[in-house]
Amino acid sequence: GESVGLHLPTLSVQEGDNSIINCAYSNSASDYFIWYKQESGKGPQFIIDIRSNMDKRQGQRVTVLLNKTVKHLSLQIAATQPGDSAVYFCAEKIGNFNKFYFGSGTKLNVKP
Amino acid sequence: NAGVTQTPKFRILKIGQSMTLQCAQDMNHNYMYWYRQDPGMGLKLIYYSVGAGITDKGEVPNGYNVSRSTTEDFPLRLELAAPSQTSVYFCASSYGTGFFEQYFGPGTRLTVT
Predict the structure, then answer these.
(1) For A46-93, what is each residue's pLDDT tens digit?
(2) CA angle, B56 as apex, B32 and A43 as ends, to 5°?
(3) In chain B, whose CA is at the least distance from the CA of A48?
(4) Average pLDDT in chain A
(5) Mutation for testing the A interface, residue in B33, B37, B86 having most A CBs under 10 Å
(6) Residue B98 CA to chain centroid, in angstroms?
(7) If you average pLDDT over residues B103-108, what whole number do you get?
(8) Chosen from B102, B103, B110 to mutate, greatest number of chain A CBs within 10 A
């Protein structure tokens, strides 16, 4: 697989614990955000999204929180499982077209 | 559906060579994108297309060209390969305006030596 995770910030958690992955975004005009999961050797996969008119959105075992005041996004994963081990990226949409700017990512290691 | 497919999976090029990275999607998506991902970094947009015959530059277009003659295909051309183009390349697609989720291919790992 690719070596994309070598220099990334890493979060290590125990299986069953909750994980929180943080992301600072750059543009106060960003109106939409997506969290992607990228497993080793694969392309990114959509997890959850949130619009800028929301503070919180929940999915299955995942919650995204948006703090527009400090331009901060977080992804919370409940009861983390070994299959959650991956690199997680936040992406912000700026402008009218579907162009996204990606953060550098956080590597999540889940210890059994 | 196969989703988004990319070929080749791996390629080694010598400096100055050229090649085309292939990307195809079978979801009838209007929008397609090319990204590069350097080690330890996020994805950077190279080029994108909103439909057949329409393409535009992203953040890092220099050294690349694209074309979109059909809805399904969006090849990326590298002319005069340079070591700085060593990266993993991802193609993605999405339905169109208002539908923001992008579906990614498995990537092409390119090394230029």
Answers:
(1) 999 999 999 999 999 999 999 999 999 999 999 999 999 999 999 999
(2) 35
(3) B101
(4) 89
(5) B37
(6) 22
(7) 96
(8) B102
